[in-house]
Specification:
Layout lengths: L1 E12 L5 E3 L9 H4 L4 E11 L3 H4 L1 E2 L5 E5 L6 H20 L3 E6 L2 H12 L4 E5 L3 H6 L4 H19 L3 E4 L4 H5 L7 E4 L10 H8 L7 E6 L9 H9 L7 E6 L4 H10 L6 E3 L7 H7 L4 E4 L8 H8 L4 E4 L13 E2 L4 H12 L3 H11 L5 H23 L1
Parallel strand pairs: 1-3, 1-6, 3-5, 6-7, 7-8, 8-9, 10-11, 10-13, 11-12, 13-14, 14-15
Antiparallel strand pairs: 1-2, 2-4
Helix pairs in contact: 3-4, 8-14, 9-13
């Protein structure tokens, strides 16, 4: 049984031909599908050859998983130039597959669903974010103009789908409701493979430090991770606390370095590049004292869940599914640096050990065993639909 998986994710290659991902698709992420299908073909976009892929990215290649890269169609101009070719490619791939999974928001995912409907292939939708929030906060006028149409397309597509997996408990369900007859499940795409109380014990045993280490993780090629908000907010506490701010991820650091200079905290801000997902990232998180997630748009952020699983006190924006993870007292208004500053000052006034315990316990539902049971039933239903379709 062959599964077609469609998304707009950008993959990279190494000199030996292996395929890598910035974080979202490590090898083990394909296991949840290979438990039901013998082969997966992944539709994505190609980011080029990265000579440092093996040390800074996660390996996505594995046996029985192949990749098909198509041109970009995520902007109005790219749609005009490339959409016809991408449509033809996706139709051919759908016709040679037994079932389809489309991860939304994505233009490739929407086309894969359209082709699956047209050619009678069973499909499932994974809803991992809000396209309105992503485009509105992308940073360009064109993206803002496109946001209403993209939101409507995604909403209509989901309202006419039969199998839907949401990564949130409430937020995405309210933005993109399923039809009454749909088979739905809420299961985060984050797996906490490492979740044990020894991590919490080690954090609680750490002595207090004179210099507070703040940190955040996220690809900041666009503005919606809120690095600028964090820099501005932290600049307002420099006279009260000694701190450093570390950022892990890919993006244009120069504009943020200049912003830190403007706020006179360039000596406090450090960009750490990127690390492979898993143990390297967890080790990096263990060096922090407080985790920040000042996003302007989110689904259910992997990095925040991982930070909480390391017993980190966290402050985050009240966007996407984040309010499902943190109490309101630790949430700030997106893009509001003054509000973020006040929340940081508030959390620093509390007993951080108690917050560490609360956060660690809050994310226990994201351990692999619990989530895998939900996903197994969902994807088994898709496989059975594919089998019936062949009979």
């Amino acid at each position: 049984m062959k599964l077609l998986f469609a998304h707009d994710h950008i993959f990279f290659s190494s000199s030996n031909g292996n395929i890598y991902s910035a974080a979202a698709y490590p090898q083990e992420s394909w296991t949840r599908y290979l438990n039901h299908f013998s082969e997966i073909l992944v539709i994505g976009r190609y980011g080029g050859n990265d000579k440092n892929a093996s040390s800074t990215l996660v390996l996505s290649s594995r046996p029985n998983v192949s990749f098909k890269f198509v041109p970009k169609i995520s902007s109005p101009t790219a749609q005009l130039v490339n959409k016809h070719k991408v449509w033809k490619d996706i139709v051919n791939l759908v016709l040679n597959s037994d079932a389809v999974i489309a991860r939304l928001p994505s233009e490739n995912g929407l086309l894969a669903i359209k082709a699956a409907r047209k050619y009678n292939r069973p499909f499932a939708v994974e809803v991992v974010g809000c396209v309105w929030d992503a485009l509105w906060n992308y940073g360009s006028i064109v993206a803002k103009l496109y946001a209403p149409l993209a939101y409507l397309r995604m909403k209509v597509t989901i309202s006419n789908s039969f199998r839907i997996l949401y990564v949130t408990d409430r937020f995405l369900q309210s933005r993109y409701p399923s039809p009454p007859i749909a088979k739905t499940v809420n299961a985060s795409n984050v797996d906490l493979a490492e979740y044990n109380r020894d991590v919490l014990k080690q954090r609680l045993a750490k002595p207090a430090k004179e210099i507070i280490v703040f940190g955040m993780i996220g690809n900041f090629k666009t503005t919606y991770k809120g690095v600028h908000t964090a820099i501005e907010a932290l600049s307002q506490i420099k006279d009260k606390y000694k701190f450093v701010f570390k950022v892990l991820g890919k993006g244009d650091t120069l504009k943020y370095i200049n912003l830190a200079k403007d706020f006179d905290i360039d000596d406090y801000v450090f960009f750490c590049g990127s690390l492979p997902n898993g143990r390297p990232v967890l080790n990096w998180l263990d060096q922090l004292d407080i985790y920040l997630q000042p996003s302007l748009a989110e689904g259910l952020p992997r990095a925040l869940i991982e930070a909480m699983s390391r017993g980190l006190p966290c402050v985050a924006s009240k966007t996407g599914g984040i309010p499902e993870l943190l109490e309101p007292r630790f949430l700030h208004n997106p893009g509001n640096a003054k509000d973020l500053k006040n929340k940081i000052l508030y959390i620093l006034s509390l007993n951080l050990s108690e917050i560490s315990k609360e956060n660690f316990d809050r994310v226990k539902q994201y351990n692999s065993n619990s989530l895998n049971k939900k996903r197994f039933v969902f994807f088994e239903d898709l496989k059975n639909a594919a089998i019936r379709n062949l009979q």
